[in-house]
Each structure stands twice: as structure tokens, then as C-alpha cells.
Write a structure and sequence with these properties.
It is a single chain. By secondary structure, the chain is mostly beta strands. The protein is built from six helices and 17 strands. Strand 6 and strand 7 form a beta hairpin. Mean pLDDT is 79; it is low at 1-24, 360-394 and 397-411.
């Protein structure tokens, strides 16, 4: 899929107490620092090509629990993460140096730290080498084969079982967001090509978010100029072309000489990529009349009446009562993931009140007047489990460390 929009760090225009208590732990609710997604652009960098990792981090303003001193630390791991700790790489830098001594240009495991939620990685591995590893031919890297033969720590920790898919060879990218309240870890799989003759995956292209008001669709902007009613179900639509779901390659063609008994490249049951849309808002919730909800999706089969592309783009935003959310503005974020590690997102702000016109909503139009602020960052630039069933490249969890990570960790 094609390149995504710029990464956004969104700040809230509300106080933490503004939403009803019944929705405090709702996964869609944005009311604390959260890592919503990590994107690689491009998502499948070829040999010698660089990709940029961007994190989508939601952060409330300082007055509402935000942290102006947030910093980011990035790292990557070439082997499967420890089964005892999904955020822990089974090798350190010294071990990595020994394993990959004969391969030029292998990046250090530490990709850097700083105030910007981005990092760069250059792929040093030829596709043929990675394809051999996918087929458990470890002697393509002699030091790796020796580590397996010695049955040392790397082998004992399960670090030699590569879960390749039609997306390619997985490496793990880890982000730790450092805040005053603590560290928020997030991990995601990024896939490197195992066949140079297969067209690389592209990130989805998403447009805007629109609300249906008075039988007409109105796109949300960043200033909150479009009004919506409190305490109602507002139809909401994501602007995205059906071409965002790309044709999947034949698994039998991905590996240069595939083993018909290989368990990691199952046959395609759908002709196109599956798409998953995760919906978030600073107040209210999603879903109504049996449609929409926290997630919507397209299964990749245009002939399936239960998986129509247009249906996946539609949702209902159930806005709160004014007494439950006295702020006048609320941000909506939609994260789109494909089944090969592609990620994109888009956000917009609505003006809440007793009328559909923002200018007549009886409240100041400035976000600062609502007791909050809107912080937009450029280049901060994240998918359900990236390793299950070929689904790749996403953070969408509501558990551990406030990070929406593929390991389904909760904020």
C-alpha cells in the first residue's frame, strides 16, 4: 500500500475527569499517554534500503495528565523475542556482533533515543539469506548454525524459530516511551523481503474522517470547525479507496524454492489483503445497530457479502452528554492496518454542543478556552497481532504499560 500520512502526536482538549466513569477503561477512549501504532515507511525495505519507524503517540496536555518531558528509545531484534518476556531480545549487542560478523552494515540493536518519535533502520540482509532462514537452513549464517548446534542460550530461548509469512522475514522493533509516570514499552514486527521478485507491500493511503450531519458528509479538520450534537449517534466515515487492499502474492511463489510441507506460508484464502480499522476518540464510544464498534475490518474478499469494503469504513460515534464531557472539542483517530505490516492513520477534531454548527455551539472556538490544548507533531509515526495468521505490523492493545502493542498490552 502507498505511503501513509505524516505521523501525528495528538493532545486532548479535555480534562481526564471529563468522560463518564463507565467509560474510563474503554479501549477506544483517549485519556492518557498511549502508543497507538508504529509504522515502517516503507514497510518492507529491500537490501540496502532504509525505512523510518514512526510512532503514533497520544498524549493529553500537561494540565490533564500529559507530560511535556516525554522521550523515546528505539531498538530492534533480529531474532524472535524471549518467550518469557515478549519485550526482551534473546541476544545483546556483543552476541549480535558475533552472529553477524560476516554481514556488512548490520545496524546496532540500539537505534537511538531522543525527543522525536522516529528512528531509521537500514536492511543489511539479502533476501536469499532470509529465505534460507525461513526454511530453517541456519548454515547460511555459520555463527547462527554454530549457536544452534551448541544448544546454548539463543537456542534454548526459542530464538531460532523464525515465523516467516508471505509478508517476509520478521524482525522486532521496540519502542519505549519515557514519561514522568513511568516507561511505556511497545513492540511490533516489521517484515523484510525474502524474494526480490515479489512486489513489496505499501502502507495504506487514508484520506480524512467525515461525520454525517443533516444528511450530508462533512470532513473533520484539526481546528474543530464542524459541529456535532451531544448525546447522539453520529454517523462517521473513513475516506479510503478500495485499492488500499492490495492483491496478495501467491505463497508458493514467495520463497525461491518453497518446501510444500512448510507450515509458515499457508495458501491464500482471500485474494486481497485484510484491513483492520481501529477507532479512538477523546469521549463517547463507537458502534450501533449491530454495526461499527471499536474495530471494523475488510476480510479481503470482494465477493463475500459479510465483508463489504464500504461497510468497514463506516461507524457510529456515540457522543456523550454535556455533563459527562464539558469540553467542547474531541479528537477522533483511526488507525488502519493491513495483513502484511502496512500501517496508516488519520485524525480529526469535532466541536461538541447542542447544535451541528460549531460557530453556534455556545462556546469559545479556541481549544485553550476548553481547558486543554492541541499538540501536533510531525514525524512521530502503529497494527492486531502481527504474528497471528499473517497479520503484521500493528499495535492495538489495551493492556500493559499503557502501550497499544501487538502483544495486546493495556494502557
Amino acid at each position: 500500500m502507498r505511503s501513509t500520512t505524516a505521523t501525528v502526536m495528538a493532545g486532548a482538549a479535555l480534562a481526564l475527569f471529563a468522560c463518564s466513569k463507565s467509560g474510563f477503561n474503554t479501549p477506544t477512549l483517549l485519556n492518557k499517554v498511549r502508543v497507538l501504532a508504529i509504522q515502517a515507511e516503507p514497510p518492507q525495505p529491500a537490501l540496502g534500503a532504509s525505512t523510518t519507524f514512526r510512532a503514533l503517540v497520544y498524549q493529553p496536555p500537561a494540565a490533564d495528565g500529559g507530560d511535556a518531558g516525554v522521550t523515546y528509545s528505539w531498538s530492534w531484534c533480529p531474532l524472535p523475542m524471549s518467550p518469557n518476556d515478549p519485550s526482551q531480545c534473546p541476544i545483546d549487542q556483543d552476541a549480535a556482533n558475533q552472529l553477524f560478523a560476516g554481514i556488512p552494515g548490520v545496524p546496532t540493536l540500539d537505534l537511538g533515543s531522543g525527543e522525536t518519535a522516529t528512528a531509521t533502520f537500514t536492511n543489511p540482509f539479502p533476501a536469499a539469506m532470509l529465505a534460507s532462514l525461513c526454511e530453517s537452513k541456519l548454515d547460511v549464517i555459520p555463527a547462527l548454525a554454530a549457536a544452534a548446534a551448541s544448544r546454548g542460550g539463543v537456542a534454548a530461548n526459542g530464538g531460532l524459530s523464525f515465523k516467516c509469512t508471505i509478508a517476509g522475514f520478521p524482525i522486532t522493533v521496540k519502542l519505549v516511551v519515557h514519561t514522568e509516570a513511568g516507561d511505556l514499552p511497545a513492540v511490533v514486527d516489521v517484515y523484510l523481503p525474502i524474494n526480490d521478485n515479489i512486489a513489496a507491500n505499501l502502507n495504506p493511503v487514508v484520506g480524512g474522517i467525515s461525520v454525517t450531519v443533516d444528511n450530508a458528509d462533512h470532513q473533520l479538520d484539526q481546528a474543530g470547525t464542524q459541529g456535532v450534537l451531544n448525546n447522539t449517534g453520529v454517523p462517521i466515515i473513513l475516506d479510503m479507496s478500495e485499492s488500499a487492499s492490495e492483491v496478495l502474492p501467491d505463497p508458493n511463489q514467495v520463497l525461491p524454492s518453497p518446501d510444500p510441507n512448510s507450515p509458515y506460508l499457508p495458501p491464500n484464502d482471500k485474494p486481497y489483503e485484510r484491513l483492520s480499522m481501529s477507532w479512538y476518540a477523546e469521549c463517547g464510544g463507537f458502534g450501533g445497530d449491530g454495526e461499527g464498534g471499536r474495530r471494523t475490518g475488510y476480510l479481503g474478499d470482494p465477493t463475500d457479502p459479510n465483508s463489504q469494503f464500504a461497510t468497514a469504513l463506516k461507524n457510529t460515534w456515540n457522543t456523550p452528554k454535556f455533563e459527562d464531557y464539558p469540553a467542547y472539542r474531541a479528537r477522533i483517530i483511526v488507525v488502519v492496518r493491513d495483513s502484511r505490516g502496512g500501517v496508516a492513520w488519520v485524525s480529526g477534531v469535532a466541536h461538541l454542543g447542542d447544535t451541528n454548527s460549531a460557530s453556534d455551539a455556545g462556546a469559545p472556538d479556541s481549544p485553550e478556552a476548553d481547558g486543554g490544548e492541541m499538540a501536533l507533531g510531525l514525524d512521530a509515526g502503529v497494527p492486531d497481532s502481527p504474528t497471528a495468521g499473517g497479520d503484521a505490523g500493528a499495535l492495538d492493545s489495551d493492556q500493559a504499560g499503557s502501550a497499544d502493542a501487538p502483544s495486546e498490552t493495556t494502557p
